[in-house]
Write a structure and sequence with these properties.
Rossmann fold; 2 domains; four-stranded parallel β-sheet
């Protein structure tokens, strides 16, 4: 079997990417679709899978879109990148900028980004600046800067980000042989749900593989698309989706409508419980990554959904190492002397 070449080289004929753009890659994509062994019974579904995007090079789904966006920027002769971020975009932009030999400036909302994500951006030598405000304000700043300066904006406002991210839909349909009946995923800036719908539509047109219904899930404290208005001060433990003005909000709403799906909000406690349940399946994800499962569980338990005979995919967008401080309070560990008798007593033998 040939080695995986990354999303651009593997899917290039399906991507809207200039012919002169290089195939920049960190071998992103080709992430596993992990079957559930426990939670499938809780949902009552025929089959439940987790698309584990935490196994991308920087630990999140952002790498798919970043590879394509930075490749296009290189084709335009851009010498530097800029982005606003709640963390995952920062880590990904910094890594791909380093790979491409470009400078990278990252704007973060002050005090609102997980330490692991901040460390990753710094490790790749990005210039990281905190904005004394929200992510949405940081995004407005980088958007304005990109319009006036010769610098590449790599937030999901960049259409090439979506071109890369849609490849996850191709992978799911290829593994299953068709689209799932339901696809559940977290919604923050709304680029990813938009990209999945693009990908499934494109795959369906090419192969008549069906289309999923989309369940987009926001945190209750950061749910502008559910509420129908912007949230000025979004609050949630799921920092990756702590966004009050989604840049792709209108497109996300249209994707959900076209799919016949739903867009809902769940409480932080439900997200953290879903994170714990995923850990019992063997998958450690950051809190936001558990939002899709949390929403699906809530819909089934409330009677809003009956998944009997259905195939469900929950997208887990980032690895647990991205935000290990949330949901896992440090515990006092047991200690024993280095003696076999002590270990036997501990084991009750």
């Amino acid at each position: 079997m040939a080695a995986w070449p990354g999303v651009i080289q593997h899917y290039r004929p399906l991507l809207e990417l200039p012919a002169e753009a290089p195939a920049l890659t960190l071998l992103e994509g080709n992430t596993p679709l992990v079957p559930s062994v426990r939670l499938v019974h809780s949902l009552g579904a025929e089959a439940l899978y987790f698309k584990f995007e935490g196994l991308n090079p920087t630990g999140s789904f952002k790498d798919r879109g970043m590879a394509v966006a930075v490749s296009e920027a290189l084709a335009r002769g851009v010498k530097g990148l800029i982005c606003a971020s709640t963390g995952n975009t920062a880590a990904s932009a910094a890594a791909y900028a380093a790979r491409a030999g470009l400078s990278c400036l990252v704007l973060l909302p002050q005090g609102q980004v997980a330490a692991g994500k901040l460390a990753a951006a710094q490790a790749h030598s990005a210039r990281v600046v905190q904005v004394q405000g929200s992510f949405d304000q940081a995004l407005e700043l980088v958007r304005a800067a990109a319009e006036r300066l010769p610098i590449g904006l790599v937030n999901s406002l960049n259409p090439f980000r979506l071109e890369g991210q849609k490849t996850a839909a191709f992978e799911i349909a290829e593994v299953l042989g068709r689209a799932p009946d339901w696809l559940a995923l977290p919604v923050g800036n709304a680029g990813n749900i938009t990209a999945y719908w693009m990908g499934f539509q494109q795959h369906h047109l090419a192969r008549s593989s069906g289309l999923p219904r989309l369940l987009g899930v926001q945190a209750s404290g950061a749910a502008p698309l559910v509420l129908g208005h912007a949230v000025e001060h979004p609050q949630t433990v799921a920092t990756a989706i702590r966004i009050g003005r989604p840049a792709r909000g209108d497109q996300a709403l249209e994707a959900v409508r076209q799919s016949g799906g739903a867009l809902i909000a769940v409480e932080d406690r439900a997200i953290l419980e879903a994170q714990r349940q995923l850990a019992l399946e063997g998958l450690w994800v950051e809190p936001a990554s558990a939002a899709g499962l949390a929403g699906m569980l809530e819909q089934v338990q409330s009677g809003a959904l009956d998944l009997r005979g259905q195939t469900v995919v929950c997208v887990c967008t980032g690895h647990g190492l991205k935000d290990p401080q949330v949901g896992w309070a440090p515990a006092d560990l047991e200690a024993i002397p280095p003696e076999l008798g002590a270990l036997e007593r501990l084991l009750g033998t």
